[in-house]
Every structure is written in structure tokens, then in C-alpha cells.
Write a structure and sequence with these properties.
four-stranded antiparallel sheet; six-stranded mixed sheet; alpha/beta; 38% helix; ATP binding; binds magnesium ion; 10 strands; AAA+_ATPase; 9 helices; binds adenosine-5'-diphosphate; 242 residues; 26% strand; Polar amino acid transport system ATP-binding protein/general L-amino acid transport system ATP-binding protein
Length: 242
């Protein structure tokens, strides 16, 4: 039995007269890894921002864990969904440990001791347990992004969304972040990953989606997706990045 965790039906989002999302239908199953690629401005960020309610879609329906996303359910849905951004978005004035304990203490009402225990476990998982007392500015970009992943995991999300998590990193740091994401995938996390790291897509994705002009134009398992893109737009895109 496949269980649908994320479901979008006819989702549209307009900014002024511009349709950033133009009718998106998508189902993501429990444990599935979906990689989303496509040209700049095609709506990838808007798509995942709508899924955790950072942007309010203005047409269609989004359901996460069977709960329809609407103003009254926003907090409940966000509690299920972890998000990792291109620009880490850590609190610069807090240590790594405090960045990780803040959400669990404030939102989940964990005691400091429990939140710290969980934070240290998550830092182990992202392979930087020794960085707990440092400030984000003292870490490399790759380490900061792994802190951001650990911070999201400390909230025990059912789903993780990644928006170009390695695009701001120097090449030598990309692998350490992708390795952590690969571990997470192997543990069975449901993931939507916007990335142009096509090696990661080949190895980890169950399906790869190509977006253009606010729509999902193609979606297929990686072997099929890369071997035989069906549209000229997707072929041209892949030819440019591979
Ligand atoms: P991608 O992540 O694929 O590069 P985005 O989802 O960020 O694309 O953006 C899709 C389109 O929507 C772009 O043309 C962008 O300029 C526009 N857009 C995104 N966010 C906003 C916003 N807050 N206000 C106005 N336009 C926006
Ligand atoms: Mg984007």
C-alpha cells in the first residue's frame, strides 16, 4: 500500500498578473524522494514554499498528511514539514546548540535537557557533534547547511523540503551535504528536493520532475527521465546543466 503524504490538485499561485504556479497536480508517497529541477523562475521555490504554507496558494488544494492546508491548519501542517533553504537561515547570534534547541523548546515544549539531548543526537547524525558550542559564522558553509538540516530534524518532521540546499556552497562542501541528505533518504524520510545535482537525483530520487513556467512538464523515475526526456524544453535544460 502506498500512502500519499503530500497531495496537490490544480495548485496555482499568482504574483500580480504573473502565474508562478499554473495548475500543479502532484502526489508524493510515504518515503518517496522527489527531485525537482527546472530553469530559474520556473516556480520550484514557490512550489515547495506553498507546500509548507510559507506562500499561500490561491487556487487548488494542498494536503499534507491528510490535512488540507488552509489558514486554520497552517501551524499543524508546518509542524510536520521541515524546510532547508539555500541560505541556511541560522540565527547568527545563537550557538549551534541554541539554534537547534530553540524550536523544540518553544514549539514542542521540550525541557532544555531533552532538547539538548535531541540536538546532540542530530548533530551526530549530520556528522558535526564537535561544533555544538560554536556560532554559525565560525563554521564553513557546508557545516552551516548541515546545522540547518539538523535543526529541521530536531522538530521531528514527517516530510523534509529542500530548496537548492547546495547552491550557495563551494564545490568541495557540496558532497558532505548531499551525503547527509542521502543518509536521511536511506532512513525512509519523505523528501522533496529542488536541486540541479543530477548525480544525487540519479542515486537517490524515486522520481525526477522538470518544471517550466509554473507547471510540472515531465516526471519520471531517474533512469527514464535522463535517458529519454520527452519534451524539447527538458532536453535543452539537461543539455545545459549536464
Ligand atoms: P525558481 O525557484 O524555479 O527559480 P520561483 O518559484 O522562485 O522560481 O519564482 C517563480 C516566479 O515567481 C519568478 O518569476 C519570480 O520572479 C516570481 N516570484 C516568486 N516570488 C515572488 C514574490 N514574492 N513576488 C513577486 N514575484 C515572485
Ligand atoms: Mg528557487
Amino acid at each position: 500500500m502506498t500512502e500519499t503524504v503530500i497531495s496537490l490538485r490544480g495548485v496555482a499561485k499568482t504574483f500580480g498578473a504573473f502565474r508562478a504556479l499554473d495548475g500543479v497536480d502532484l502526489d508524493v508517497a510515504r518515503g518517496e524522494k522527489l527531485v525537482v529541477c527546472g530553469p530559474s523562475g520556473s516556480g520550484k521555490s514557490t512550489l515547495i514554499r506553498c507546500v509548507n504554507g510559507l506562500e499561500r496558494h490561491d487556487e487548488g488544494e494542498i494536503e499534507v498528511e491528510g490535512r488540507r492546508l488552509e489558514p486554520g491548519t497552517l501551524d499543524a501542517v508546518r509542524a510536520e514539514v521541515g524546510m532547508v533553504f539555500q541560505q541556511f537561515n541560522l540565527f547568527p547570534h545563537l550557538t549551534v546548540l541554541r539554534n537547534l534547541t530553540l524550536g523544540p523548546m518553544r514549539v514542542r515544549r521540550l525541557s532544555r535537557a531533552d532538547a539538548e539531548a535531541r540536538a546532540r543526537a542530530m548533530l551526530e547524525k549530520v556528522r558535526i557533534p564537535e561544533q555544538a558550542a560554536k556560532y554559525p559564522g565560525q563554521l564553513s558553509g557546508g557545516q552551516q547547511q548541515r546545522v540547518a538540516i539538523a535543526r529541521a530534524l530536531c522538530m521531528q518532521p514527517r516530510v523534509m523540503l529542500f530548496d537548492e540546499p547546495t547552491s550557495a556552497l563551494d564545490p568541495e562542501m557540496i558532497k558532505e551535504v548531499l551525503d547527509v541528505m542521502t543518509d536521511l533518504a536511506a532512513e525512509g524520510m519523505t523528501m522533496i528536493v529542488v536541486t540541479h545535482e543530477m548525480g544525487f537525483a540519479r542515486r537517490v530520487a524515486d522520481r525526477v520532475a522538470f518544471m517550466d513556467a509554473g507547471r510540472i512538464v515531465e516526471m519520471a523515475p531517474p533512469a527514464e527521465f535522463f535517458a529519454a526526456p520527452r519534451t524539447e524544453r527538458c532536453r535543452a535544460f539537461l543539455a545545459n546543466i549536464l
